[in-house]
Design brief:
Blueprint (H helix, E strand, L loop, with lengths): L2 H25 L2 H41 L1
Helix pairs in contact: 1-2
């Protein structure tokens, strides 16, 4: 999965997780609040993976550019 896809899925999971937590608060459902917290945390993780992929790609591109200039 690419960096952008990770970030999009992460944002979606965060939003759904927050909505579940709010619904759990409104209905008094501890189970729903817990599921929402877990899904939101999963979304944060997915976005972090996407950011790490972007950073790695940028570092590789900079290294390749530097190597090409030295040739």
């Amino acid at each position: 999965m690419g960096a952008t896809a990770d970030k999009v899925k992460g944002a979606a999971n965060e939003a759904i997780g927050k909505a579940k937590q709010a619904l759990g608060d409104a209905t008094g459902s501890e189970k729903l609040k817990g599921e929402g917290a877990i899904q939101e945390a999963k979304g944060h993780g997915q976005q972090a993976v996407g950011s790490a992929k972007d950073a790695a790609k940028s570092a590789i591109n900079r290294a390749a550019d530097a190597a090409n200039k030295k040739l």
